[in-house]
Amino acid sequence: MNKIGVIICSASGADYETFDYPVEKIHINLHLNDVLFRDFVDIKAKEFYHRIKNEEDLDIKTSQPAVGEVLEMYKDMKKKGYTEILVITISSKLSGTFQGCVLAAGMIDGVKIRVVDSKSVSYGEIYLLNEAIKLIKEGKSVDEVADAIEKIIPNIDIYVYVDTLKFLVKNGRLSATKGALATLLKIKPVLRLTSEDGALIPFQNIRTSKKAIKRIYEIFEEKTRGRKVDAFVAYTDNPEFGEEVRATLLKIKPDLGDVKIVQLTPVVGAHAGHGTLGVGFFYKD
């Protein structure tokens, strides 16, 4: 009988969650003023958001784990008796982690590895992981599990409110000129993480924070009307805001039952910045 090992990248926030199945984590790198930190291992969310909020000139970069590091993880899992390994990564449009995991998989024999590009991030990855664990417990093979969760990916929709454009400019997602103009005009962009290819794209530019959040509520209501969905709220350094948004989503759609609330891990917050908040939902019908 095959024994399936499970790996997920730290951009998922899996380090802050608990699971009823063994889950290994690949930790993405965070660079603050050229000092290397491994996500969660060397720096947690609370410390990270405090620093970016209070250190104005903090230089922030991220980098994918080395292929050799991922290969060693595969080898270690093989030694533990795993014959198959499922790997779930952040969207390949947001990080090179997926490609690194694929390259490492081609460097080892004697264990079958399936790497799934979640085309998502944060709880979008966790949602796929939870579904995968259910299928593994049912006795499915790694190919059956990977095929099944890849079919879920098109049913994930995520919208993101960005409070400051500073970090989008820093990481090249927005030009400095456009960023300065948008800041001057008090524009609060709403972004969408597309499940078609996993890219984070501008959805709508809105004046003022209040109107931006209101627009996300409208999108949620429009997109989920008459449909069965699960939902989540992802916050950065603003848990009270996250709880407020969660409560509003439940008022909009009482049949949700509950809305998962999670904090964005540092390597994701490095690109979004403090004050950012995301709303995601999963179509179940």
Largest sheet, strands/sense/barrel: 6 strands, mixed
Order of helices and strands: EEEEHEHEHEHHEHHEEHEHEHE
Distance between the termini: 33 Å
| CATH domain class name of the largest domain | Alpha Beta
Runs with pLDDT <50, length 5+?
Answer: 173-185
Question: Taking strands numbered 1, 2, ... along the chain, how are they ordered across the largest sheet?
Answer: 10-9-8-13-11-12
SSE blueprint:
Elements: E1 4-9, E2 24-26, E3 29-32, E4 35-38, H1 45-54, E5 60-63, H2 67-79, E6 84-89, H3 97-105, E7 112-117, H4 123-137, H5 142-152, E8 156-161, H6 166-170, H7 176-184, E9 187-193, E10 200-207, H8 209-224, E11 229-235, H9 239-252, E12 260-263, H10 266-272, E13 277-283
Parallel strand pairs: 1-2, 1-6, 6-7, 11-12
Antiparallel strand pairs: 3-4, 3-5, 8-9, 8-13, 9-10, 11-13
Helix pairs in contact: 2-3, 4-5
Structure, briefly:
With 285 residues, the protein is an alpha/beta fold. Helix content is 38%, strand content 25%. Strand 6, helix 3 (97-105) and strand 7 (112-117) form a beta-alpha-beta unit.
